[in-house]
Design brief:
Arc Repressor Mutant, subunit A; D-Maltodextrin-Binding Protein, domain 2; two-stranded antiparallel sheet; 13 strands
Length: 302
């Protein structure tokens, strides 16, 4: 709040205290100020308003008609300030607009399907959802909350873990009928491996060979795609072999639409999804805290 606005609130607070205490000295004791400081603040207030608020005498203070009206307004203003502070400190009722940035698979499979349940619990919160697999700056994008995977490099980000799931290599039965089924990681070099067209956290797909030694196979021969959900759809269409989170593919695997490959060579690495935000948790707005707690409680593997 600008300094002059803070000073005005202090003047109102002092004036209200003087009226209620019916004395400059009593108001000064209540506010832990000197009587002269109280007198100067009231004089400054009257000078700024251009009207007398209090008529002073040796026996008592007399409030002018303008002072009485200003007192009523002052009490209301101070009450609203106290109520606003109490509401913010207590977390209040979640309300307002909440901007969420999520990667595409999580948005399609978790965030958007859960929105009706969240809105039923918090009808005064309006959620704006932006889906992208590119890592964005929360401050530049004015995002209150984001869904991220992998290591969190920004030091100002606070994270809550949502879900952790292993990675799996898959292909559609139609692709395997046409191109054959790879038996070892080395066989992948003759296949269409779907890759991302933006930098990922890994240089390639990790496997272990027959002796248990880690190896890396770089995706080649296939299309490059900019988000995980589009890659899943490409795999379903038979465009190539994909490597994605198991939770993302679980329904397709169970239905036989996608077939897990090279399970004996899977290194068991996992992908962790976090809800991240800027700042310290205890100072979160109520609307952000509500969605954060809601996601932690509701994002679970089936």
């Amino acid at each position: 709040m600008p300094r002059n606005e803070t000073n005005r609130l202090r003047e109102i607070e002092v004036f209200v205290a003087v009226v209620e205490a019916e004395s400059f000295s009593a108001a000064a004791r209540r506010l832990r100020m000197t009587p002269s400081a109280v007198s100067k603040l009231i004089a400054r207030l009257e000078e700024r308003l251009g009207i007398p608020l209090i008529r002073r005498s040796t026996r008592r203070l007399q409030i002018t008609a303008e002072g009485a009206a200003f007192y009523e307004s002052g009490v209301r203003i101070l009450g609203e300030v106290v109520a606003a502070e109490r509401e913010a400190a207590a977390g209040a009722v979640p309300r307002g607009r909440l901007r969420v940035n999520s990667n595409v698979p999580f948005g399609h499979h978790w965030l958007i399907p859960l929105l009706p349940k969240f809105q039923a619990l918090y009808p005064e919160v309006a959620v704006d959802v932006v889906l992208t697999d590119h890592v964005v700056d929360l401050i530049e994008e004015r995002a209150d909350l984001a869904i991220r995977t992998g290591p969190l490099k920004a030091p100002n980000l606070i994270a809550r873990k949502l879900i952790q799931t292993r990675m799996v290599v898959v292909a559609a039965p139609s692709y395997l009928r046409t191109h054959g089924t790879p038996k070892t990681p080395a066989d992948l070099e003759g296949h269409r491996m779907l890759g991302f067209c933006f930098p990922r956290f890994f240089e390639g797909w990790p496997f272990v060979d027959e002796s248990g030694k880690p190896i890396i196979i770089r995706p080649s021969g296939g299309s490059l795609i900019n988000d995980g959900e589009s890659m899943r759809l490409a795999a379903l269409a038979g465009a190539g072999i994909a490597r994605l989170s198991h939770w993302h593919l679980q329904a397709d695997i169970e239905a036989g639409r996608l077939v897990p490959l090279l399970q004996d060579h899977n290194p068991g690495d996992e992908e962790t999804f976090y809800a991240v935000y800027v700042g310290q948790g205890k100072y979160l707005p109520a609307r952000v805290r509500a969605l954060l707690d809601f996601l932690v409680a509701n994002v679970k593997m089936g």
